[in-house]
Amino acid sequence: MDWTYIFFTVLKAVIMVTIFMSIAGYTVVAERKVASWIQERPGPNRTTLPIILAIPVIGRIVTRLGLIQLPADGGKFLFKEDPFPGHVNKVYFILAPIVALIPALTTMTVLPFGEITRDGVTVPLVLANLDVGMLFILAFSSLGVYGIILAGWASNSKYPFLGGIRASAQVISYELAMGMSLLPVFMWAGGTLNLFDLVEAQSGLLFGCLPKWMIFFQPVSALLFLTALFAETNRLPFDMPESETDLVAGFNTEYGAFKFGLFFVGEYAHVTMGSALFVVLFLGGWSLWPLNIFGLVDYPAGILGAVLSALVFMLKTFCLIFFFLWIRWTLPRFRYDQIMNLGWKRLLPIAIANFVVYAIAMAVYIRFFNQA
Amino acid sequence: MSDAKDNLISIFIDDVEVKVPAGINLVDAAEMAGKEIPHFCYHKHLPVSGNCRMCLVEVGTPGRDRATGEPILDENGVQKIMWMPKPIIACATNASPGMHVRTQSNIIKHCREGIMEFLLLNHPLDCPICDQAGECRLQEFATDYGRGYSRCAEDKNVKPKRTKLGPRVILDDERCILCSRCVRFCSDVMNDGVLGFTERGSYSTLTCFPGRELDNNYSLNTVDLCPVGALTSTDFRFKMRSWFLKETKSICTESSVGVNTVVNSREGVIYRIKPRENVEVNDSWMSDSGRLLYKQVAMESRMSDYTIEGKPVTPDEALQEAARLLSSGKSAFIGSANSSVEEQWMLAQIIKKTGDSVPCWLVAHVGEGDGFLISEDRTPNFRGALLTGLTDKMPEDKLSALGAAIDAGEIDTLFSYNECPIAAGLSVEQIKKVKFIYMGTHHCDASQYAAVELPGLTVFEKKGTFINQQFRLQRFEQAVPSEGTLNDIKSLSAVLAAVSSAKSVPECVDSIWQAMSQSIAPFKDISFNSISDNGVLVDGSAFEHLPFVEGKSLHYEPKA
Amino acid sequence: MATKVVDRRPLSWAEKTYIPQILSGLRITFRKMFNPVVTLEYPEQRPTIPDNYRGVPTLVKDPHGREKCVSCQLCEFVCPPKAIRITPGSIDEASGNEHIEKAPKDFEINMLRCIYCGLCQEVCPEEAIVLQDIFSANGYTRQEMVYNKKKLYELGGTLPDKHFKWDKKKKASEQAPSH
Questions:
Q1: Do B128 and C173 count as a contact with CB atoms less than 8 A apart?
Q2: Residues of chain B contacting residue C73, judged by C-beta atoms under 8 Å apart
Q3: pLDDT of A40-56, one tens digit each?
Q4: With respect to CATH, is domain B307-543 assigned 3.40.50.300?
Q5: Most exposed of A126, A206, A221, B175 (fewest Cβ within 10 Å)?
Q6: ipTM value greater than 0.85
Q7: Count of structural domains within chain C
C-alpha cells in the first residue's frame, strides 16, 4: 500500500462525501419545494444574491427554484445563537447529532453507484467493494437511531425523551421485518451479499422486454423493505420520534442552531442513502432500462461509461427521493400503537411467510428443474 | 336628636309610609325614603327658587269638610285623599302629616318628558367636549326621564360659548339651563350678588353685573353647583374626563376650619379637589384657594432624596443618622400644626424618649380669616398638637427663645418637622451652630444647612386625621401613591425605635390609634376606622383657657 | 347519552392492505403539483381589503383638513386592553377652529396592546377614530409600537364624510351672532 493509493482513496472519499452531502442538502430544498407544489404554493423563491439576480434569465430561475436556499439555511444554522439548556447532559447532547449523521455517511462507502470498464474488466464505482456489503449497511444504518435515542436522553426533558423511546421501539420493530424481507432477495441473487454482484445480477432482460430487476421477482420483499425503510429513516407516516402534533418536536425539541441542522441533514442523508440502497437492491442499480431492450446493454468503456452509469443511478435515486417526499405530503401520520401493530402483526409475519415461501419454492425449483 | 324624633310625621310616597321630620321639603323627604325626585335648581344648601319644574309631583292631603272640619271618609271608612288637580313642584312643598305623593304616575312621567324636551330644545350636543359629561344632571335625567328622541326641526339658539365670568370661571351660555343655582349661591351664601340673568325667554343670559366679575374666593363653588356644563373651572377645563377620576375623601389643610374635600385623581395624578358635604363644617362649599393646594404634590421644590450632609443616602441610613444625632441629650424639636394627629403623637413619643427636658416649639401661622371657611389659624391641626401632648401652650410667632438657647450652647441638635426655622425667626448662623435635621415635604430656606434631610409626604399621599377648630376629629385618606418616599409615620417610628431601643413601636395609623385610645382620654374608644365621614367631636374642654386665634366662621363660634 | 352504532361497510381484502388507498392518495397529490399556485406574493401583491375590515386604528381628518378628534376620551374609556392614552388639550383661539374648543394634545395607541376590537370606532361621537385597512403594524422597539398622534394622522389620512357638523355650527354662530 503506497501513499498515492491512500491519497487517492481519501480524495475519492472527500469527493463522495461532498457530493453526497450536497444531495442530502438539496433534498431538504426539494422537500420544501415538493411540499409547496403539492399544496399549490410557490415555496422558497426569494432567497438570492444580487450577483445571481444579475445573470439574465438563469439567475431568476435559480432564485425561483429556491436553489440558494440551501447555503442560506446552512449559513443561518451556523450563525444562529447555539442554545444550551441548563438541564442537558452536555457531552451526549453534543454527541447525539454527530452520531445521527455518521452512519449515513459510513454506509455510503460500500454503496456502488456506477461501473467502470477498464481493459475489459468491469469494476464498480465504490469506495470499498465489500463482500458483505449488505450486512455492513444493515449494521451501520441501524446505528443512526442511537443518535436519536441519545438526543432524547441527553436532552433531559420529557418530549425528547418520549421521542427517543419511540425511536428505539420503532427501529427494533422494523429492523426485523427489514432483515427478513431482504433474505429472499439475496437467495434469489445467488447467495451473494456483495451489492455490485447484486446489481450485475439484475442487468439483462426478462422475456426480452422487462428488466431483470429484483422488484419484479420479489414484489412483496420490495414493499416490505420500502415500508421498513420509511420507518427506519423516521419519515412520515412513521415519524413518531419527531411527531410535532403530540411531542412538540420530539427528540430535537431542545436542539437549535447547527446541532439541529446536523439532525436535519442527517435525516435527509438517511433518506438519500435509503433511496440509493433501494435502487441497488430492487431497481437494478444503474442498469439502463428500457434502453437495453434495443441492444444498448453495456456502458462504453472508460470514464464516459462511468459517468453515464453514475448519472443513471443518481436519476433513479432522485426518483425514489421524490417518492419519499411525495408520500410525506400524501399520508397522515400513524398513531403510535398502529405503528407497533403494523410492524409486529403485519410486516414481520408477512416477511417470514415471504421468506419461507420463496425458500421452499427455490428449493423445489433447484431440486427438480435446475439441477444446478 | 330627641326633639327631631318627636317631630317626625308620616307621609306616603308612592303609597309607602315614610317617617320624616315635619316641614321637610318633598325632594329631601323622597331621598330619605330612597326615592329620587329629579331636580335641577333645588339644592339643599341654597334657598328654593323652583324654576326648573323638573321636580313636579302629584300631591294629595287627607280631606276635611270645609264647613265642619270633619274628616271626609270614603266607603271603606278611610280618610279620603284630596289630590291636587295639577302637579306641583316637590322642592317648594313641605311635608304635612298624612300627605300622599306620587312620583311615578303617568302625568308625572309626561311632565318630566316635557320639561326635558324644553331644556334640551336649545341645548347644544356638546357632550364630547363638555367637562361636565359623566357627572351632568341633564345627561343623567335625559336618559332616565327624557323622551329619547328629538321632535325639534328648528335650528338651535346660538349663544356665546366662552364668556369669562371671572379669573377662575368660564361660562358656556348655550349649555345653561337657567336654574339660577349660581346666582343664588352668590347672593345668598356669599352675600356678594355678582351674577344675574338678563333678557327674557330663550334670550336669557347669565351675566355679571356691570363692572363686576365673579372673582371672590368661593367662585368655584358655582362650578360645582352648576348641574350642567355651563360653568367650568379654568384650572380643570379640558384636563380630564370625570369618569376616569378616582374619588378620595380628604381634608383641606388651608386652615383650622378643616373643610371636607374629595380629591379627584387618576393614576397618581391629582386633577381637582371638590368640597364634600358636611353640614357641621362646610355644608357643600370650599374656597378657591384650598382647591389649588393639590399643586404642592408635584412642585419642583418637593424633597425627594434622603441626605446626610447633602449626600444622598438610603432612607435607612438617613434615619439611623438622625436617631444618632438626636440621642445627644441636648436636642430640641420644632413640631408642626400641619402634621396629622398620628405624626404629632409619634413626634411626642420621640421627644419623651430623648430626655425629659427636651423642649418642643410650635410655630404660629396666622392669617386673616374671612369669617366663612378660612379661619385665622392657617394650620389644620393645632388642636391635635394639644391633644397628643406635643405642646400645651399657643404656638409662637418667632422662636427667639430657641435662638437664645442655641446661642447659649444648650442645644446641639435641632429637629424640625414640616416647619422652616428661618421663617420662624432663627438666623442662619444659629442653624449652622447645631446639627440640623429637617423633615418636611418641600425644601425651605433652611434645608440647605441640614445635616440630615428626611423627605415627607403631603396630605394627599398619606392617611391620617386632623382635629379642626371645633375639636372635630376628621379623617383623610391617601389619594395618590408616593414614590420613593417613606410614609412619615414609618420614618418617625424608625427614629423612635432607634432612640428608645424599644422592641416594637407603632408603625401604622391603626396601631398608633390603638396606643392613643389607651393613653389619651378624649380619644377613648376611638379607632381610625371608626371615625365617620362627618368626623367625631372630641373633648377639648381641657384647653378652653387657651386664647385661640380663630374668629367666627361658618358653623363655628369662638368661646366668649 | 344514547349511543348510535353506525354500520360500517366491511373492508375488502385490497382495502385492508391500504395499498389502493395509498395509490389513489398519491395520484391526488401528484395532480395537485401541476395546479396553479393559489397564494399571493405578499409584499408585491396585496389582498383586497373589504371596507368593513378592522385594521390598525387611525385618526382621520375631515375633507377640510381639520382634525376630527375632540379628545372626549370615550375610546380611552371603552378600550378593553387600555391601549389608548389621550392627553386632552384646548384649541388655540386664533386657529379658526376655536369654536370646537377641544382637541387632543397627544393621542397614543399602544399597538402592542391593541386587540383590533373596533370598540373605539364604534364609540367615537365624532367619527374621528377609524379602523382602516392597515393590517401589518411592525417596529423594531416597543417605543416604536406606541403610535403617537402624528403617526396616527399619517396612517389615517382623510375620510370623505359630509357631515361638517362643526362647520355648520360655526356658520350658525356667525349668522346669528347674538340674541
A1: no
A2: 240-241, 244
A3: 888 888 888 888 888 88
A4: no
A5: A206
A6: no
A7: 1
